[in-house]
From TrEMBL, chain A:
This is RCC1-like G exchanging factor-like protein. One of its GO terms (cellular component) is mitochondrial inner membrane. Keywords: Membrane, Mitochondrion, Mitochondrion inner membrane, Repeat, Transit peptide. Residues 46-327 form the RCC1-like domain. One of its GO terms (biological process) is positive regulation of mitochondrial translation. GO terms for molecular function: guanyl-nucleotide exchange factor activity; rRNA binding. Gene3D superfamilies: Regulator of chromosome condensation 1/beta-lactamase-inhibitor protein II. Guanine nucleotide exchange factor (GEF) for mitochondrial dynamin-related GTPase OPA1. Activates OPA1, by exchanging bound GDP for free GTP, and drives OPA1 and MFN1-dependent mitochondrial fusion. Plays an essential role in mitochondrial ribosome biogenesis. As a component of a functional protein-RNA module, consisting of RCC1L, NGRN, RPUSD3, RPUSD4, TRUB2, FASTKD2 and 16S mitochondrial ribosomal RNA (16S mt-rRNA), controls 16S mt-rRNA abundance and is required for intra-mitochondrial translation of core subunits of the oxidative phosphorylation system. The keyword Nucleotidyltransferase does not apply. It comes from Emberiza fucata. Pfam families: RCC1 (PF00415), WD40_RLD (PF25390).
Automatic annotation (TrEMBL), chain B:
Belongs to the pseudouridine synthase TruB family. Residues 49-193 form the Pseudouridine synthase II N-terminal domain. InterPro entries: PsdUridine_synth_cat_dom_sf, PsdUridine_synth_N, Trub2. This is TRUB2 synthase. One of its GO terms (molecular function) is pseudouridine synthase activity. GO terms for biological process: pseudouridine synthesis; RNA processing.
């Protein structure tokens, strides 16, 4: 027996007993004597978090250490390829990504309800007073900074939704109408165009109240704005050279005007736009489109490349629940949970399908549907400029499209030709897609 | 096996001397077919002295279930079946509230935790996430270029599988029974070991802010072989084995053709 001298002497003398594997009785006694730890108490709730990923040098991700490292070992991170947690004090209920900037809004009754980060060269994030020079404002905001809104009752009004375009942003409140800020060279902020106006460092935030009923959704296109009211009518203002204002002409509109055409009298339940094309969904499941059609987005009804009046798109795909418009491609979600894409670009059906005028369905097996989980279906669809995102009812996020500066969040820099699952540590509740970055609202699992 | 009727001994043509049909002492050579003496059972001895038996995918000492064995020439099919990379189905039983060092209920206790906050809904959410991340791993380790059209077609049909070495991947997981503190899962996996499944149970416990140990691992399907085709230890005799081989032969052949073609 190979033992050290002392151990051997103790054993031979009978002072110690060699260890035997614990018997069942000993195991049970140890089991009962062990203390019980509690990791989740009665007040354990699922936490709400925000994850961001994509191009960070514009400040749109809201993490200053990516742009200006605050510790010696940190290096500037140009692209965040996978979801990164953004710490926020309040629960963020709505987020929107513009062209290099982001807006986050919370549903609270506190004084600060909206935070913005990213590019601020046209005051699309309001006036951010610079600490070095009190008269000037910041051109790049690297951290989520509160946006001061001129509310009449700041402790009662709640912000319902935010939306961002190329250089302007809209904030929708429940009782005080819509606030617009940013570039107004085409009237997209809903006020009269002032020649040679300097937008950088401007304090002006315009308020829009005159609509036929309460505004329930605001959408920003690249240089135009769309407002949907409770009665189901749509108003538009801004740049119209592609007909994206849908008012029957190709000029600039600086006052929100009601749209007619095929949607006159129709109860519209959702509007969407991001580039120069717009889509609207009615309560009966019909899809209407107007705006740019250079990429075959509206080629099913017309050969012209600009449509300035809303036209009904006669697709036989079933009742449509939600639609989203990107720069060159469009996506709709039907009541059965099927996803249809059309337009130009990486549409999500492999590298061979680059353009189509008629909607093509993406097979549900790519979104996690299988014989073991037949209830998995897509719940929401979102669009960025050249990428698509789909949220399933299990809280999974699938993205596909052009991977511009890592905006897909897959961890790779290559384009993705079919839906790919993004690994997010939580159940994804909502996602906002921008040009080169994305923001998602996530609830933790337990 | 040796008692079964043997095949007939080989015959050989020999020219034997035999007396001529006419009289007289002349000897003629007549061709006759006689059995070869070397084939006689008394010369040759019993036909089968040893049997070569090969094992399929490994099964732990603490686990139970379907275990594929190849006999004799069937061993060649074993390597082919391994290269098919078919999924295996396990029924895994777990217990909340304990954590041990080897992740099973017979190990040394490390920690005890509360588990009243766990609901079936939370467990299903965690299982959905596990399935999703493993789905991604499936696509990544299959070594197919994601940019091709055929990758898209295979992904739609769900036929993308790693055809070489890869870490353990779970293709599907779902909860069969849930009765605190016990629960039962059905796991479909590739390239796994039973200890990895026990580790998965432990990690599920950690994700739910508690702890879990694995009480039972049972393999219910290994490629094409299910529990219905399997013979329990009490039925290991010649007739049953031969019948089982006959029943499975067709299935194995079709599967091999389909996958390796």
């Amino acid at each position: 027996v190979a033992m050290a001298g002392l151990a051997r002497r103790l054993l031979c003398r009978g002072f110690c007993v060699p260890a035997r594997p614990p018997s069942t009785r000993q195991l049970r006694e140890a089991d009962e004597a062990a203390p019980v730890f509690q990791y989740a108490g009665k007040a354990a709730r699922r936490k709400d978090r925000v994850f961001v990923w994509g191009f960070s040098y514009s400040g749109a991700l809201g993490i200053p250490s990516f742009v200006k490292p605050d510790a010696g070992w940190k290096k500037p991170r140009r692209i965040q390829p996978t979801p990164y947690r953004l710490e926020t004090e309040d629960k963020i209920s709505s987020a929107a990504c513009g062209y290099g900037f982001t807006l986050l809004a919370s549903n609270t009754r506190d004084i600060t309800k909206v935070w913005g980060m990213g590019l601020n060269k046209d005051s699309q994030l309001g006036f951010q007073r610079s600490r070095r020079d009190q008269t000037k404002g910041y051109e790049y905001v690297l951290e989520p900074s509160p946006i001061p809104l001129p509310l009449e009752k700041p402790q009662q009004t709640r912000v319902l939704q935010v939306s961002c375009g190329r250089a302007h942003s809209l904030v929708l409140t429940d009782s005080e109408g819509v606030f617009t800020m940013g570039n107004n060279s085409y009237g997209q902020c809903g006020r009269k165009v002032v020649e040679d106006e300097i937008y950088s460092g401007s304090h002006l935030i315009h308020q829009l109240k005159e609509f036929d009923s309460r505004v329930v959704q605001v959408v920003c296109g690249q240089d135009h704005s769309l407002f949907r009211t409770k009665k189901g009518s749509v108003y538009a203002c801004g740049w119209g050279a592609d007909g994206q204002t849908g008012l029957g002409h190709y000029n600039i509109t600086s006052v929100p005007t009601k749209l007619n055409g095929d949607i006159a009298g129709v109860n519209i339940i959702q509007v969407s736009s991001y580039g120069d094309c717009c889509l609207a969904v009615s309560d009966e499941g019909d899809v209407f489109g107007w705006g740019n059609s250079e990429y075959l987005q509206l080629a099913s009804v017309t050969e012209t490349t600009q449509v300035n009046v809303p036209r009904h798109l006669p697709f036989k795909i079933g009742k449509v629940k939600e639609a989203a418009c990107g720069g060159t491609g469009n996506i709709v979600l039907t009541e059965e949970g099927n996803v249809f894409v059309w337009g130009y670009g990486i549409l999500g059906k492999g590298p061979n399908l680059t353009e189509t005028a008629e909607p093509e369905m993406i097979p549900p097996s790519l979104f996690g549907w299988s014989d073991f989980s037949p209830d998995t279906r897509v719940a929401h669809v979102r669009c960025g400029l050249s990428q698509f995102a789909a949220l399933t009812n299990r809280g999974e996020l699938f993205v596909w499209g052009k991977n511009l500066r890592g905006c897909l969040g897959t961890g790779r820099m290559e384009d993705q030709y079919f839906p790919w699952r993004v690994t997010v540590p939580g159940e994804v509740v909502d996602v906002a897609c921008g040009v080169d970055h994305m923001v998602s609202m996530v609830r933790s699992f337990t | 096996l040796n008692a079964a009727p043997e095949r007939a001994p080989r015959q050989q043509i020999r020219f034997l001397p035999s007396p001529a049909p006419g009289g007289g002492g002349a000897v003629e050579l007549v061709a006759a077919s006689v059995p070869v003496l070397a084939d006689h059972p008394l010369v040759r001895g019993p036909r089968f002295r040893k049997l070569k038996i090969g094992a399929g995918h490994r099964l732990d000492v603490k686990a139970s279930g379907v275990f594929v064995l190849g006999i004799g020439h069937g061993n060649k099919l074993l390597t082919d079946l391994y290269n098919c990379h078919l999924t295996k189905v396990y029924t895994v039983g777990g217990l909340f509230g304990k954590a041990t060092d080897d992740f099973s209920d017979t190990g040394n206790l490390i920690e005890k935790t509360t588990f009243d906050h766990i609901t079936r809904e939370k467990l299903e959410r965690i299982l959905a996430v596990i399935q999703g991340t493993n789905q991604k791993a499936l696509l990544m380790y299959s070594n197919i270029d994601m940019k091709t059209q055929e990758a898209y077609e295979l992904a739609v049909k769900g036929l993308i599988r790693p055809m070489g070495k890869s870490p353990p991947i779970i293709t599907a997981i779902r909860c069969l029974q849930f009765a605190l503190p016990e629960f039962q899962l059905e796991i479909h996996c590739l390239h796994e070991t039973q200890q990895y499944l026990r580790k998965v149970v432990h990690e599920i416990g950690l994700e739910l802010k508690s702890s879990a140990v694995c009480t039972q691992v049972r393999r219910t399907r290994d490629g094409v072989f299910t529990v219905d085709d399997a013979l329990p230890r009490t039925q290991w005799n010649l007739q049953n084995v031969q019948e089982a081989i006959r029943n499975c032969q067709l299935k194995v052949e079709t599967e091999l053709e389909k996958t390796l073609a």
